[in-house]
Amino acid sequence: MQGYVARIFTSFIDVPDKISLAIFFSGCSIRCKGCHNKELWNVKSGSLMSEEEVLEKIKANPLVDYVAFMGGEPTDQMKFLIQLCKRIKKEFNLPVAMYTGREFEILPEDLINNLDLIICGPYKKELHVGGWPASSNQRIFRKRGEQWQC
Ligand code: SF4
After folding, report:
1. From the CB of 3, is ligand 1 less than 6 Å away?
2. Neighbouring C-alpha atoms within 13 Å toward the C-beta of 50
3. What residue ranges define each of the domains in the chain, with the CATH number in brackets?
4. Reading across the β-sheet that carries 66-70, which strands appear in turn?
5. Mind listing the pLDDT tens digit for each residue in 6-58?
6. Is 119 in the pocket of ligand 1 (CB under 6 A)?
7. Measuring from atom 6 of ligand 1, which residue has the nearest CA?
């Protein structure tokens, strides 16, 4: 399977206290006012990549201890996202984080079963807090065992 990806790089800030591989999907249909990544709204701002090409980037970065999806809106390419999350778990046994403008309650089980950390909700400029997460309406869900905690 293939999907549109804008950039991939090693990050020290997207998952606190972890070295993560940040994978930016291109394309966002949510379009929050005040978004800082407007250049990624168009899906064609990224390039088509295969699952294998994305997984190669993980293989080439043995220091990463987390993979983090962001964008853009990762869930706009849901099938590609789920497939990558499943393969990351199976082939690398790494924890996976996702930043999404969508709410936790509407995310499919097939996706959340393969995630460990979810930062969710649309960015709201009027609720900007300048920290993590970026606006106070956004929620952070962590998987503890089989349970999610917010
Ligand atoms: S969901 Fe993220 S990328 Fe999309 S408009 Fe909101 S802040 Fe920007």
Report:
1. no
2. 3
3. 2-149 (3.20.20.70)
4. 47-50, 2-11, 20-25, 66-70, 96-100, 117-120, 139-144, 147-149
5. 999 999 999 999 999 999 999 999 999 889 899 999 999 999 999 999 999 99
6. no
7. 32
